Amino acid sequence: MNHRVTYLLGPEHIELREEPVPLPREGELLVRIRAAITCGTDVKVFRRGGHPRMLQVPTPFGHEFAGTVEESGPGVTGYEPGDRVVVANSAPCGRCAYCEAGRENLCRDLQYLNGAFADYIRIPERFVRTSTHRFDGDLPYEVAALLEPLACVVHGVDACKLGDGAEALVYGAGPIGLLLTAVLAAGGHRVAVADPNPQRLEVARVLGARETVEVSRGSGEAGRLRTYSRDGDGFDCAIDATGVPEVWQDAVSCVRPGGVVNFFGGCPPATRISLDTALVHYNELTLKGAYHHRPATVSQALDMLSRKTLDPRPLLSAEVPLENLENALRSMMAKEVLKVVVRP
Ligand SMILES: [Zn+2]
Ligand SMILES: [Zn+2]
Fold first, then answer.
1. b or e along 225-263 (b: 16 or more beta carbons within 10 Å of the residue's beta carbon)?
2. Nearest listed ligand to the Cα of residue 174
3. In this structure, which CATH number among 3.40.190.10, 1.10.3210.10, 3.40.50.720, 3.90.180.10 belongs to the domain 2-146+312-343?
4. pLDDT number for residue 50
5. How far is ligand 2, taken at its centre, from the CA of residue 159, in Å?
6. Is the pLDDT of residue 331 over 70?
7. Among all ligands shown, which has an atom nearest to the Cα of 126?
8. Confidence class of residue 218 from pLDDT cuts 50, 70 and 90?
9. Does the pTM of the predicted model rise above 0.70?
10. Which ligand is located closest to the Cα atom of residue 103?
């Protein structure tokens, strides 16, 4: 039997190919994909034609998905055909010093899973062991498929170590900035969001932002943004979800003494920022990088989705059949949509 798989072949070049449905080998699962979701990373790899850590062309791609177990390989127990599962897009080794310290996102042998834009996907053994989660029937597939970005965001918020009812400023109201907003608001924090796009700020309000600020693209507005904090002295925490170096720099000027700056958005390779050393020193700022997710934050994120602690559905702007994936990626590039549900 054949199925359809989307291949990334080069910059802005994808192709839907027919190939035999893979057979699950020892320790593996075959999953029928019911919903996949487009992500900013997909847009980046589509534009660049690959990713230095995750993808070398030609390759199947797409990494946010949920589906049903079609078949278990030899030696796999505990799964029945029809079980609803979501699989995180990475699997740590479980043996290195980072894994042992509970910092699996820094694992020296982190493996990535790609190939969500297809009818079926074979789940490798390590992913079956560490990254596959069953979920209940009342959680829609397209919401379960948001597990990966939500787990990253939970990891990022966790890294800020906020006190109760903290004041946070989120830069960027793209999908990640909006998820950060939803998680912070659900945690009882007071969130302000800055973005140039008024429609996206509208969604931020729906997801729980108390304040939204329309800013020009780029930077230079730290002084104005600081005035949106309760006493004008700055935020307890500023989180960048833009990946723009100038914004990273701005974020440092937006927090109060003792505040935390979380550099969540990855900037283009080889970029640098400069720091006001006196500000960092005398105000005892904490500057924190955050990358990816850990098994603990994946479990936490699934729990939040299952318990409906937050409703991420405003992020899903549209739905397309698998054959229209390219249109979905292009409308993401044009910032006409946040995330798109892709149905096989
Ligand atoms: Zn993603
Ligand atoms: Zn490891």
1. bbebbeeeebbbbbbbbbbbbebbbbbbbbbbeebbbbb
2. 1
3. 3.90.180.10
4. 86
5. 19
6. yes
7. 2
8. low
9. yes
10. 2
